[in-house]
Specification:
The chain is an all-beta fold. The protein is built from no helices and 4 strands. It has strands spanning about 15-20, 25-35, 45-50, 55-60. The strands form 2 sheets. The chain has a two-stranded antiparallel sheet with strand order 1-2. A two-stranded antiparallel sheet has the order 3-4. Strand 1 (about 15-20) and strand 2 form a beta hairpin. The protein is globular, with a radius of gyration of 14 Å. The chain starts with 13 loop residues before the first strand and ends in a 16-residue tail after the last strand. The relative contact order is 0.20. The model has no long low-confidence stretch (mean pLDDT about 85).
């Protein structure tokens, strides 16, 4: 969702398709679909959890780790 304070029912922008722990980045990452996501790079979206917490995430390029391929040659 775009507004973490929005009351229920919330306007959903998309959904998470998978999530993983990234050892290289030291935090979790998730993949998902977002309406017009390719136009929202850099925007923050919010994920409400069942326990009442809300997580924030930045919409980024699908190639977000080593986009220049520099680590490939290490």
């Amino acid at each position: 969702m775009a507004d973490p304070t929005q009351p229920i029912p919330m306007d959903m922008l998309g959904h998470v398709t998978s999530s993983y722990w990234s050892e290289c980045l030291g935090h979790g990452i998730a993949l998902g679909t977002v309406k017009a996501g390719h136009h929202k790079t850099g925007d923050t979206v919010y994920f409400p959890l069942a326990d009442g917490r809300v997580l924030a995430a930045e919409i980024c390029s699908p190639v977000f780790y080593d986009p220049k391929g520099e680590r490939h040659h290490d």
